[in-house]
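1st attempt posting a full record on here, be nice pls
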Amino acid sequence: MSRPRLLLLSSSVVHGHGFLEYAASDINTFLNKNRVSTVLFVPYAAVDHDAYLAKVRPVFTKWGYQVEGIHQDNPVDAVKRAEAIFVGGGNTFLLLKTLYDKNLVKLIRERVFEDGVPYIGSSAGTNIAAPSIHNTNDMPIVYPPSFNALNLIPFNINPHYLDTDPNSTHKGETREERILQYHSLPDAYDVYNVLGLREGSLLLVDGEMGVLKGIKNARLFIKGKPPQEIEVGTDLSHLFANQLKASAVRL
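the predicted structure (as tokens):
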């Protein structure tokens, strides 16, 4: 079994930056280190796959990479020959349902763990790298057969994490309150630690080593403990203490 190599972005767009611009250095370093020349793009979190590919392809072309759209070929064959996989953002429920419908969940996991294929996720693509999608912010516009996801890391992620605005008149639950409610579920439920990635933050994973990168800090929720502020550059390898096993996910 190869070590998983992942780059998990909170989002593709950050205020004041172009598409993927804030993460350009990290993406290029990640792909160059892994000797990638062609990236397989998965646009299933959106409805118009061709339009999404047309948005992504020029960015990677400018950086010197070819981009193939998984929807332009037999998706199973495309994943089997992929040098690297980039799963874009959009609606997490639509993305996961489509991956199940096309029999890609186990295959992508196998390619990452057994063949060492580098994986990049953004927003919804980051959500599905976790054990489950329970901490997505998206509306359940479709119903996947399971909320169990790729399980490439042993904790969940909440992309687009928002801090409480003391000047806001909104009286609904804050993002922190919702995650703490998730952690208050009985032990009968599968509940995972949660890393809240603010816009502009990303997680670099190499095997059981992880580090927070990007331009913004993150928020870490360990069940039973107060939330922790995580600064850019922080080693998060302790979150990978439990060996990832293929049998841990129920697909």
